[in-house]
Each structure stands twice: as structure tokens, then as C-alpha cells.
Amino acid sequence: MAMTAVAAPSMRPWRRQMGVPQWAVAAGIAVERWLEAERDQLALWLPVMTGGGVALWFALPGPAAWRVALLMLAAISLAGLAIGQGGRAARALAIGALAAGLGLGLTWLRSDSVARPVLGGPTFATFRARVESIEPLVDRDLVRLTLLPEGAGADGQGRPVALPYRIRVNLAEHDVPTLLGRGAVIGLRARLMPPALPAVPGAYDFARVAWFAEIGATGRGFAPVRVIVPSGRGRGYA
Questions:
Q1: Which of 3, 60, 146, 172 has its CA 20 to 30 A from that of 89?
Q2: Element (H, E) at 186
Q3: pLDDT tens, residue by residue, 23-56
Q4: What is the largest CA-CA distance in the chain?
Q5: Are strands 142-149 and 153-154 parallel, antiparallel or unpaired?
């Protein structure tokens, strides 16, 4: 008896066999149609997702949470690439997760690159420093100096005080010497403290801003302020 060859039955599972609800199928089709219609605009979501990763770094409590977030974003991206055959949704999810992970990772890298010592607690110190910038606070009759200390300071008993890399102090307008300017080297006494933490949860976090500005202490300077090396520009705020 002659035998007739037939095609082997397909082993591909049907949606009904997988138990996918009809509403989910319809939603997936609608998403794919929307992504297809907006395909020229999808690239604009890249900076949004990268910014989301940056925001994630600020929202999470510390390195352990950042590592978990990076692993989860990597897993989402790999999963999207694995299942994203023939559709835009999974690939868009994969690329978005990758962009968010990039934002988180770059912010973490930036945070570590600007890490500087921070003053441990309030102290009075006499020290020598180079003036990096001068900013007048006219409404408060103050002048704000950003200083780069040169060497260690000394407390009231003459004991050495370790100073951070950059300090910001306020001086009364009438205490500013004539030859003070950018680049001048001065000697002064100041009350210093660590950058202030938020007063309440969600309030302005100056300590975070100071960290990225490499400012390790803030405070108030007192007269007399000695100009050891003049700036050569005379008194000015340039």
C-alpha cells in the first residue's frame, strides 16, 4: 500500500493554550499600533528615561539599593531584547530600561568622582585659604567667599584642625579688606559646620548640593581678615 507523507503537526502553543485573556491580546495590539504611529517620536523618550534613572539614584537610600535597581533594569532590558521579535513594545521597554540604568550609573559615577571629606562637626578654626570666588549678598550686607584651604587650620587652643577641600563662609560687608579678590590668599578665623541637612523630609537638601559642589563646610568669618597675598585686582567681586 502506498504511503502519503504529511507535514508534522506544529508544536507552537496557541494563545488559548497559554491562557492569554482576549483583553490582554487586544491591549497588546493597541500598544503596538500606537508605537508604530509614534515611531518617529520614540527617540525623544531616551532623555526622559535617562532622567528617570537619575531621579532613581536620588530617591533610593544607598549603594545596596542602587545595585539592586541596576540589576533589575538590566534584567528588564535583557528580557525585552529576548522577547522583542517582530514588535516594538518589548524593544522600547528594553531600550528604556537601558537608558534608565545609564542615568543611574552615570549619576553614581559622578557622585563618587566628586567625593570629598566633610567636616565632622561644628568648630572654630583659624586657617589660611585661597579665594576661589566672591559673591555679594547685598540684601543681607554680607559677602560670600568660596575658599580653598591651604594646609590644616588651628582651633582656639592651637591644636590642628583638618579642613575639607572647599569651604564657603560669609563675611560682613564692612569686614572685607581692600585687597580681597579672586586668587588672593587670606588668613581668617571662622565658625565652621558641616553642610546643613534638610530640616524636614522632602525639604531643600543643601548637604546634597554641597556634596556635588565639593563643599565640605560652611560658616561665618570674623574680622580681622588678613590678606597674605593680594589678588592683584584690588577689591572686587569678579
A1: 60
A2: strand 185-193
A3: 555 666 666 676 666 677 777 878 899 999 999 9
A4: 117
A5: unpaired
